Each structure stands twice: as C-alpha cells, then as structure tokens.
Amino acid sequence: MAQIKKISTELQILDKFLDTSGDAGLSGQVLSSTGTGVNWFSGFSSVYSVGAVGSGAAWRNMGTFTAAQGGQSIFIKIVSNNGYNASISQNYEVYLRFKTSNGGSTDANGFAADSSFYTTGPSGSLGGGNIKWVGNAAGTSATAYTLYVLFPQFTGNGSFYVVENSAGTWTNSGATATDPGAASSTVLIPPAQFRVGSTDFVVNGGGGDA
C-alpha cells in the first residue's frame, strides 16, 4: 500500500496535474475518484459563454460531443436573446437533447443518432432548422458530433449555454461558422418538439430529419 502524505501548507501546480493513468485531462474537466485512483471527468454541468452576434444572424460552432454508440446522451440549455432592450419579448431559452444510436440503427438519412429541442420565452427567433449536428463520419462510423446554431442578431455579451452529460466528452468551440447544409448521413436537423404525456406539441415546426 502506498504511503499517505499529508500536506499542511499551500500547494501551487506550475505544470500539468496528472491523474492515476498519467493523463492531464482536457480543459473544463474535473478530477474525480474512481475508488482505486483518480481520473479526469467531464460528466457534470459546465457553463460556457456565447460570443456576441451583431447586426446580422450568424452560425456558431458551439462545440463537439465525442461519444460512442450505445445511447450516450448530452443535454444542452442555451440562454440568449434577439436584442437587449429592456423588454422580455426579446428573450428565449433553448433546451436541446442529443443521443447516439445503438450501433446498428440510423434515421431515414443514415444518421446514427437522434435529437430534439424546445424553446421557452417570448421570442420565437430560434426555431426549427436553426440547430444542426454534424458527425465526423457517416452513420455508425461517427465518433464525434459538432453542434451548430444559427443565432439571431443582437444577442449582446451575456448569452451562455450549459452542458450536462454523464458519458462522452464535450469540447467547447464558439467559432463562427457557416450553414452545415441539408440533412444527410452526416447532418442531423433536430425537430422542435415538446411532449406532455402521450401528446406531442410541435413548437415552431420546421425541423425534422429531412
């Protein structure tokens, strides 16, 4: 058994902090106990800023979800607005879920995952077709999925999004981007949909996988 070292003073790390396997981890990860050691872990809630959008709508590469097939899920909440006058009519929140497939099934276009979202808030400026996922390969060969969002103009400097996942890894980007294109085996366009019980409420329909 390894000796226990007790430190009763300040500790300053000047270089990388490694886990039990010698891994330095990724930006935003936290160190968590495995019971027999420690490991860098990203399965928690992380908050990221969204850069301001000016006088025209703009696509943003939000980041990439690296995940295996097998039903690995990620939940993302976006808080933003279309203008920043003193009026709630400009505000909206987006609730987005994404899930990988079982390793064998795909949608009608050959994309091996599913996703849907709904919005709250008075502003209906972010509807179906404004959110797209892009896989790094077609169908079940994909191992990473990048999220693109078309933000309306005048978002201000305070927009942000929150990521929650228990498997896989999220890597933030925030880079400006262009429209990823139509739905295909590498592009998924989630529908805007909200379900209560067994009844579907389609919110600003226009998404879908086709």
Polypeptide structure, described:
The chain has 210 residues and is mostly beta strands. The protein has one domain. Helices cover 0% and strands 41% of the residues. The chain contains no helices and 14 strands. The strands form four sheets. The protein has a five-stranded antiparallel beta sheet with strand order 3-10-5-6-7, with no helix packed on it. A hairpin with a 2-residue loop joins strand 13 and strand 14.
Provide a short characterization of the protein structure.
Helix content is 0%, strand content 41%.
Structural features:
210 residues; mainly beta; 5-stranded antiparallel sheet; 14 strands; 0% helix; disordered C terminus
What is the helix tally? 0
Low-confidence spans: 206-210
Please describe the biggest sheet, giving its number of strands, its sense, and whether it closes into a barrel.
Answer: 5 strands, antiparallel
Amino-to-carboxy terminus distance: 59 Å
What is the structural class? mainly beta
Strand content: 35-45%
Going across the biggest sheet, name each strand in turn.
Answer: 3-10-5-6-7
How do the helices and strands follow one another from N- to C-terminus? EEEEEEEEEEEEEE
Radius of gyration computed on alpha carbons? 20 Å
Can you tell me the overall shape?
globular
Helicity range of the residues? under 10%
